[in-house]
């Protein structure tokens, strides 16, 4: 059992008096009462939907006939591309058909949708659809796409200084290629939607989507109705991790088309196998780099070319590439740097957002480079990291943004001491030296890496949120925002912000399901901004309400209670109170107002205190015809990133952290065990410490899976073979670190964000790269101890599977084996 410890932030450091209340749905989750999309009761006449999709990576549709399916008892209807009013969609580029017509470009591309009254009839109906295919040449590697000039979007470049000249004059140089594989989101709830056709051509869509607004728009366009005729509701998601940001929208459209054709409710819930085959993954990357440095390991120049596999259509891949380019520096100042990126079009499912977006790929590159620099100059990689780390004099990124509120140097120094890095390094070196004398087959590695993750959408207009706050006469609140709850705790965080502003217990605040009729034109719950933009919008709404209530309370203090509206409103014998919203939520210089403990207090200059219960004040407001509802809006300030020049302020702030990981490799089997992990993060002033710690530790484990065991395997037709829990290996209990320490520093210097907090959703995943670099460290240590002189640097692809670990330990032996395989010799 892993020893997992957390050091709590002192209560005084939290932004509110609620401490760390549990997730708002924790009780219903553990009792099995939480309702997800496919848990909605089946209505009379409701249809089950199924998809007919391509078994080939690239093929022409020679014949498509749904008529035989309609002869199956219980099959009600089928739709094809001819039934789609607007048969093209895309989050960035409109290049993807909702239902393919004449040609398919990946395994899983849908050509027909069938609706049936029972699952049994649906299975028979899907099997009865006749499709004749003509296979066409396909592109299934990044290298093939480069050779064919098969690209999505244009080449992007971000640079500073003169990388080419600095490379040419650098005392030492290294070059290399890094292969980074994709990963499946493996959310527990597969893509699911239920669509109810309403009167007058309207639709009510209950979708497992991170982006209700986009889902609303795609459904409306597919069905040929106005946006205002579609309401999309997302109550909660059973996990998403980016996989439901864009790709939930066509799933909803399929069910909506069946609902429109049949006039009945329609339900589509993908099986795990179909979900994994059809939906896109984390983009694979191929990175070529050249780096120049001096004898101490100071990086003088970096020139890198990043190619990614975007799949058959654009989806979000160009934005993912942009974030990769923006994170190629990670925590390190590089004076001369040029990074270029190009998305490749291949015949795979359109790849999409995944926790961290493109950030993990850029960070993986620079962390790998630093490991190689350390080997080249003969020092510890931690020393190279600390030498190159952003500091007070080197604080401008390659895209021209200043790294403000920078705690990276102190984070490095603090964790180095806390985890006893130097002592353990000596012990590991001794252990690995003993191994060469035949004492054991186990080799160990240690690495301490960092993350500097930018928080904001890099597309400026997405950085906006809205919220509707309604107070009720019993003193409780309902809050509706554009944020989607998908397990990360955004509802609990926003509830804490609202409760704190009104001085209420968190149990008095109810966060409502996200719905486009209450919160329109929302941004996706993504880029770790869910609480930032939507919580800030809710806070703005609360402050407006509090201003009115403060003005009311100040006036009530001088009116005898028997003359309050609660006593006289029905008779109309007293004039109504008119509030002055300019008073502000804190009152005036003459009267200080506080909302605390479910009461509102007014203190005048003499110290006299007037107190009224919060619920009673709401009732007085109602009877004086004073609104206790408010729509709040927030747009992230001071952003200005020029995508053409690649310069400007791309992010509101940076979440920072460091992690040290120790691993142990079995040189006979390639098995990797993570012996110990220590994490130290700067999350500002946490809204909910427990939820943040869950994000830190959970994100790290998810990243470990991508880096070590989650290997996507496709056959020669481009079909995913690893499409089930038995063939796709996410981390299990046995894979968790044997010792797992996580802690937060207290930082109240982040004035950029709501109540001084920092986002915790994506940044921790990037710290898991310390596991991958520790594996590289172990491999190189083993090779140095088993060869004469310094062993040649060996690349290690992601994920570092057992076979790849063995190849790294003994590349010469595998080279002989590969040659024999290629020649047919066994």
Describe the overall structure.
With 826 residues, this protein is of the alpha+beta class. Among the domains are: 1-34 and 405-455 and 652-826, Aldehyde Oxidoreductase, domain 4; 43-138 and 202-225 and 233-265, Aldehyde Oxidoreductase, domain 3 (Alpha-Beta Complex); 464-522 and 530-635, Aldehyde Oxidoreductase, domain 4, CATH 3.30.365.10. It is built from 22 helices and 30 strands. The strands form seven sheets. It has an eight-stranded mixed β-sheet with strand order 4-6-2-13-10-11-12-21, sandwiched between helices. Strands 1-30-29-28-17 form a five-stranded mixed β-sheet, sandwiched between helices. A hairpin with a 4-residue loop joins β26 (640-642) and β27 (647-649). The longest helix has 27 residues, at 530-556. The chain is globular. It starts with a strand and ends with a helix. 55% of the residues are buried. Mean pLDDT is 94; it is low at 6-17.
CATH domain topology of the domain at 1-34 and 405-455 and 652-826:
Aldehyde Oxidoreductase, domain 4
Let me know the number of strands.
Answer: 30
Share in helix: 25-40%
What would you say the CATH architecture of the domain at 1-34 and 405-455 and 652-826 is? 2-Layer Sandwich
Overall 3D form: globular
Query: Which structural category do the helix and sheet elements fall into?
Result: alpha+beta
CATH homology superfamily of the domain at 1-34 and 405-455 and 652-826? Aldehyde oxidase/xanthine dehydrogenase, molybdopterin binding domain
How many helices in DSSP terms? 22
The percentage of residues in β strands lies in 15-25%
Low-confidence stretches: 6-17
CATH class division of the domain at 1-34 and 405-455 and 652-826: Alpha Beta
Distance between the termini: 42 Å
Mean pLDDT: 94
User: Strand order within the widest sheet?
Assistant: 4-6-2-13-10-11-12-21
Cα-based radius of gyration, to the nearest Å: 29 Å
